[in-house]
Specification:
The complex is a heterodimer of chains A (about 650) and B (about 260). Chain A is an alpha/beta fold and about 650 residues long. Chain A has a domain of about 160 residues: GMP Synthetase, Chain A, domain 3 (2-Layer Sandwich). A 9-stranded mixed β-sheet of chain A has the order 2-1-11-10-12-13-14-15-16, sandwiched between helices. Chain A has a 7-stranded mixed β-sheet with strand order 7-6-5-3-4-8-9, sandwiched between helices. In chain A, helix 10 crosses helix 11. By secondary structure, chain B is an alpha/beta fold. Chain B folds into 2 domains: about 170 residues, Rossmann fold (3-Layer(aba) Sandwich); about 80 residues, Rossmann fold. Helices cover about 40% and strands about 25% of the residues of chain B. Chain B is built from 10 helices and 10 strands. In chain B, the strands form 2 sheets. A 6-stranded mixed β-sheet of chain B has the order 6-7-8-3-9-10, with helices on both faces. In chain B, strand 4 and strand 5 form a beta hairpin. In chain B, helix 3 packs parallel to helix 6. The two termini of chain B are about 25 Å apart. The chains are: A alpha/beta (about 650), B alpha/beta (about 260). The interface between A and B is medium-sized, with 13 and 16 residues.
Chain lengths: ~650, ~260
Amino acid sequence: MKSLPIDVEKNWGELPKIFDRGIETLPQLLVYQAGRFGDRVFHRKKDFGIWQRFTFKDVLDNVRQLAMGLSALGVTRGETVGLVGENEPELFWSEYASQAIGCKCVCLYPDFTPPQMEYLLNHSEAVVLICEDQEQVDKVLEIEDRLPRVHRVIYWDDKGMWKYDHPKLMTFGQVQELGRAHDRENPGWFEAEVASGKGDDMAVISYTSGTTGLPKGCIMTHTGLFDTAFRVAGTLPIRPFTQYLSYISPAWAAEQMGGLTQGLLVPFVVNFPEEPETVTRDLREIGTEAVVFTPRQWESLASLVESKMMDAGPIRRWFYRWGMSVGRMTNLARLEGRPIPPLYRLLHPLAEHLVLYPLRDNLGLQDAYYAQSGGSGMAPDVFRFFHTMGVKLRNVYGTTEMGMFTSHMGETYDLETVGMWDPVHPRFGPPLEYKLTEEGELLVRGGAGFAGYYNNPEATEKRMAGGWYHTGDALHMTDKGEMVYLDRLEDMRKLSTGHSYPPQFIENRLRFSPFIKEVMTLGDESKPFVAAMINIDIGTVGPWAEQRSIGYTTFTDLSQNARVRELIREEVAKVNYFLPAGSKVTRFFNLPKELDPDEDELTRSRKIRRSFLEQKYADFIGAVYQGREEFSAVVPVKYQDGRTGTLNATVHIVDLGPEEG
Amino acid sequence: MLQDGYLMRAEKLNLRFGGVVALSNVDVVVGPSEILAVIGPNGAGKSCVLNCMNGFYRPQEGRVCFGEVDITHMRSHKIARLGVGRTFQGVQLFPGLSVIDNLLTGRHIYMKTNAVQGFIYRHWTHREEMAERRKVEEIIDFLEIKHIRHALVGSLSYGLRKRIDLGRALAMEPKLLLMDEPMAGMNLEEKEDMARFIIDIREALDIPVVIVEHDMQVVMDIADRIYVLNWGHVIAEGPPSEIKQNPDVIQAYLGEERAL
């Protein structure tokens, strides 16, 4: 492996010394950090319009009371505690508290439907569920009779809960009250319980988002969490008490490694947004220094800027374009290793003052030095966009099972890649090793290793065949030692002509258009060319249409409007420009309805579910390849309250000539 | 009829506009903890009852008591100070002010410092502003409008503006809330939200609510008791289950034979 462009030992700094004290688990680390930083702020949450602070001592007190309360309720070592809610301090405390008494946690996405909750809670054998509010309690009570193991449902936000009377229901406060009494009766018990935790205890069961089949529960041990937190900490110097915004759900492994583990280790000041809808304002208020978003979230932030600038007056637009062009010649040039022309060297401070800093400031990213995008691939244009304005956005690649693998490191890295291999601290395991199979699949071993799928040894064995972890991802390595993520192995597509094309690459590029929200490419071994089905973004296409006095009634009507089709056709042509012949999108149609996770069309992390969509829209896809100009069909739809209906739609199919793009 | 006392009582209301009889001998009693609905076809006199209750209209005969106080001839701003809050059919907010400022206007009856003190802005004004802002923040939390607290009201959707209107009425900390057509012009989702807020107002804030509403479905779902008006007369009174079966109501609303 190539040597890394960074000083790993320096980046780790004092952190490894913490572990010389025999700390093995997150709760042990919490007790230690509370002793070191007692009155410094650890968690912050906006309540009634004011940022409320919780010091390390406050957090430990809360965790202690809750842990003792859970124990008083009969929860014992080795059992599972379910957690569901938006990112709030109580959610983090609940996780630390469960782990303090030797339990493992399973976090559910707050927008899970009751059947999805039922599967995860039963599969993980949860005995207690700690949830946020009425919304979650209602869902749990709906499936309560099918959750034989769950004997308590605890909630922390009592709004709307005044009339609930159920023997299993308790408030967070009541459990803590129980805990205080239990603590008085059993002095020293909490300390002993925390101390008896071991590094290879299960800390979390994290369910993979399941683009294919039922979700599988990956076991994450304390050692595994520390290992992966160290891998990331080795790649860039992280300052203690960095302002971190906890936004992605802990149901996703990335936040377990980030906010929960790194947050405690470094430590961060972990800030929780007031509501998911207020994130952009919260980002700005706290002056975020560290933030991890999914590619979709970065993309939507970028389209937000683009669409707002579209509405701006001509003078502002001119300044914006000028500032960004200076940014491209300076910030982006530095990243890409190009020389900076002297003129731009002079212009840069001016552009920074007039355009780039105010732009970052408006997004709340003015001081963000640790900005990451995790999850599936993201269009390089989005990266370039943020680097141009001065946000050093870095890609990371890893799996829930094995932790982080690669990161963008140093000052100069290739945006088309996912970076170089992360260093592993020898305390937690051997360095990461990898090899590529003939089909291009990436196999990995090293670090703390994969602890297995919960109650699913067959799947574990399949994934770990030959002692290597099979990622199922197709990657290749550049001469510079950076990994390029191509696609999921099963998603690289061959056309009937024998030509292979990268569906994700096309989709990511198209999604960067402010007018396109989701897109799925079509074309496989039975089909001779690439086509696409596109979900327009009504949030930008709507105003675009209004400005041009194009009348429309519904999403369906707007999506099939002739001028909107022309608009999208131009966007597709732009992407075709980057594609080799044979991979170009030849035909497309706009979907008559929005793709919706409630209808299983998207996963909860908003990835498209390809095979499901291929079946659901089979008639439309057939029409595309029969060469038809338009096609009518009935599409089933599901409303939020569970009712179903149908949508009659005529869809126009648009052709792109071979000269376009 | 109500057994255990009342919060507001309107007796024998007679209201005429010239020759038009808007209300004749209308009796309405509001209990200390209930959601009461007043329904009826167009022009039945529903809004007139509300307007008599908060002093916008003066009935020619009859009287209105709020607790022990006779408010029949009281000015409407004094009735508001007594604790009768009200929302309107059309939205009556300041479109150029933010949501917070609009809600703060509902707090003015509690503010003690004057314009001069506000200009000097010493600690007493500061303290008052903090306290009032806190109350407003509680309402923002209650109505789930945190994401728009700094937005200008004029830029919000109709459904949200109705919610701000309700918020301003709640900011007065009323003892009784009168709502005129809270669901008019809303889509299904907004209606469901509003219905939930009305129930929460009674259950969490313990404020009885009188609603005048067109949407029968919502009324039947959330009201404890219903008065039905037709041509200025009360033609029925009782819980939703009885009202649904009442032949007079069915006829007034739907003509002959069809059940609700």
